[in-house]
Amino acid sequence: MLRLFALSPAKPLSQSEIARQIGVSHVAVGKQLPLPDELVARTPAGWQVVDRAGCWDRFMADYPGPRGLTTYWATTGDPAAQLERIEHVALDRGDAPPAVSGDLAADLYAPWRRPSRVVAYVVNQPSLEEHGFAVVRPTDATVELCTPRDPTVLTMSRALPSKRQGNPRRYTDPLIAAWDLRRSPGGDVDAAVDQLRARALRERLWR
After folding, report:
1. Are 95 and 87 in contact (CB under 8 A)?
2. Peptide bond into 34 cis (omega under 30)
3. How many angstroms from the chain centroid is the CA of residue 134?
4. Could you give the angle at which helices 79-93 and 102-109 cross, rounded to 10 degrees?
């Protein structure tokens, strides 16, 4: 819910609309409300965000991660080319396309640094060995694929135009992208996260 209020316009949202947009039950939403008064207020028309930046910062501080099953892979080629191979594997298997996060999503939302690895969320874990990838330790990975326990990650992802392809590509929302970007290696990560935060709060990047 903090992600939803950080990324959505300022109009009030009913409990049912919150549940629909984040992909959980009406009852589950009710168990988490109310959110802190300094961040979200209840009005006759529904729940109204008070401090979008505060919602962003609280989420980044408190989110425990998507959890679930994560696999780590490595291969040659730049991250964009590796992602295209993974997307082709998903298409050949008849799976939903991966939801791109981390470096590559941030490069779409608020370009700042050169992407160094692929982070993506998948419904089903693909077997990539026959496509030129090797299973590796997390520290050696060029690709991280997660099947999340958090149901909101995939529900809140969106199909957006790709920079390299004319076809839409599925991306996580900017807050999940920022959370994954923060885990990336490199001395410019903090600046890239700050750029993404500033643009997401200034413009409507997520629909």
Report:
1. no
2. yes
3. 25
4. 110
Q: For 97-112, write each residue's pLDDT tens digit.
A: 999 999 999 999 999 9
Q: Exposed e or buried b for every residue in 174-196, given b needs 16+ CB within 10 A?
A: bbbbbbbbeebeeeebeebbebb
Q: Can you list the domains of the chain with their CATH numbers? A: 2-62 (1.10.10), 69-202 (3.30.460.40)
Contacts of residues 8-12 at CB distance under 8 Å and 24 or more positions apart, as own/partner, are: 8/49, 8/206, 9/204, 10/48, 10/49, 10/52, 11/48, 12/43, 12/45, 12/46, 12/47, 12/48
What is the spatial distance between Cα 132 and Cα 19, in angstroms, rounded to a whole number? 40
Q: For 112-148, what is each residue's pLDDT tens digit?
A: 999 999 999 999 999 899 999 999 999 999 999 999 9
Tokens describing residue 177: 């992208």
Residue 131, SS3? helix
Which contiguous run of DSSP H or E holds residue 69? strand 69-74
Cα distance between residue 41 and residue 79, in whole Å: 42
For residue 120, give the nearest of 94, 165, 89, 92 by alpha carbon. 89
